[in-house]
Amino acid sequence: MFRSTLSAFVLSTFVLVSTSALTYGQSTAEVLTILMDSDGDGAIGKYEGAAAWMRLVFENDKDEDGKLSAKELEDVAFKFLREREQMFQDIAGSKQADTVEIETLSYGNQVLVKRIDTNADGKLSRSEFKRAPTFGFREFMILELDDDFSELDPDGDGKVELRDLDADMKKEFSQYDKDGNGRAQFEEILDSFLSEEPLASFAVEGDRAIMSGVIGPTTPGRALELVLAHPEVRTIVMKKVPGSMDDDSNLWAARLIHRMGLNTELPDGAEIASGGVDFFLAGVQRKVAKTAIIGVHSWDGGDHQGSEVPKDHPGHKMFLDFYPEIGIDNAFYWYTLKAAPADGIHWMTEKEIKKFGLRPKASLESK
User: Fold this and answer.
1) What is the mean pLDDT of the chain?
2) What does the pLDDT look like over 218-252, one tens digit per residue?
3) DSSP 3-state assignment of 273?
4) 10 Å Cβ neighbour count for 186?
5) What share of the chain is helix, strand, coil (3-state, %, to 5)?
6) Which is it for strands 286-288 and 346-347: parallel, antiparallel or unpaired?
7) What is the pLDDT of residues 285-320, one digit of tens each?
8) Contact at 8 Å (CB) between 365 and 359?
């Protein structure tokens, strides 16, 4: 029932938005275009846009009437622009600065923001940053890599000299020296990371969809496409889903597959961790092979971890709202925070898997 209702909604809904000028110099329409372009390619696909719009309504429909008013839309835009303003101030290190010299940034951040420098003047301006497209998976991986790379690249030229590393580090980084010049370049490492950890995708095989990759902003749109374009699919088989780069997108995609009544399965040799576990738990029925492994840890909020803040901290709310919706006791959430720090991983024991209902007795359990 819900599947057919959603199909009608997606096919018939067209978003009319307010284009009144905002204090921050952008219209609501401009902001919504950025928010709905989840892969940051400058265009909005039908499933991508529909999934983004549904999420906007879910998160911002304050009067719960099932739609967003012009006032609610403008509130969304103001919130987005305030966040972008704060991010720019953090990059600039000042509330007053209107531009940032790109060459003063770490190498990874230079790579990241050069595409935002639309007039190619070597500076990042407030207006350029506010109009920047949504950061996609490549940008996320740049930020992840830059944290560690910057420590090994003191001159900021984007190259790590292998001769300057200790034996263990040299062995690790030598694999990225594709041209054999004795240097591991930032772009070489980035391309290797991207090939090793692609974004999550679904490959349909009969009534099953094989899922693998990192969950990110494009996952809700791909999940919606799976549901609408392939109504024959009943089970998502997760082979290797190491986590998510975006908890908001992950939980929204998980809600979607749960509401559609889809099942989830971990076959022999499957490996899921972090946000991949949340997605798996959203299956209405779940199947876990004996050789599948499940990893959990605390979330990382930048300057704090989930295990370090009190239970009434707002960072917990999205998870405490989510788990009851999919029929999982919040005790599991609190357990994950203590199981391992954000930069570590705890592989669940068979006893823990059964204790928290990841393999419920009434499920599709492997024999």
Assistant:
1) 85
2) 999 999 999 999 999 999 999 999 999 889 899 99
3) strand
4) 23
5) 45, 15, 40
6) unpaired
7) 999 999 999 999 999 877 789 999 999 999 999 999
8) yes
Q: Rounded to whole angstroms, how far apart are CA atoms 116 and 209? A: 36
DSSP-derived secondary structure for 196-264: HSPBPEEEEETTEEEEESBB-TTHHHHHHHHHHH-TT--EEEEEEE--BS-HHHHHHHHHHHHHTT-EE
β-bridge partners, 149: none
CB neighbour list of residue 11: distance below 8 Å, 6 or more residues apart: none
pTM score above 0.85: no
Residue 5: its H or E element: helix 2-12
| Residue 123 DSSP symbol | E
Q: Of how many residues is the chain composed? A: 367
- Provide block-wise average pLDDT over 10 residues at a time, the chain (367 residues): 43 38 59 83 86 88 87 86 86 85 87 85 88 77 80 83 84 81 85 81 97 93 95 97 91 94 96 97 95 95 86 94 95 96 94 86 45
Residue 4: helix, strand or coil by DSSP? helix
What are the structure tokens assigned to 252, written together? 């929204």
Q: Enter the tokens of residue 295.
A: 């990893």
In 3D space, the residue among 35, 73, 364 whose CA is nearest the CA of residue 220 turns out to be 35
Give one word for 280, left, alpha or beta, with left for phi > 0 and alpha for psi -120 to 50: alpha
3-state secondary structure 29-79: HHHHHHHHCCCCCCCCCHHHHHHHHHHHHHHHCCCCCCCCCHHHHHHHHHH
Closest CA to 270 of 260, 282, 280, 259: 280
Angle between helices 28-36 and 70-92 (to 10 degrees): 70
Strand partners, 25: none
- Stretch (H or E) spanning 99: strand 99-101
**Residues 179, 201 contacting (CB under 8 angstroms):** no
CB 259 within 8 A of CB 234: no
Tokens 């067209």 belong to 14
Strands 235-241 and 271-273: parallel
The DSSP output letter for 312 is T
Task: Output the six-digit token pair for 13.
Answer: 């809904």
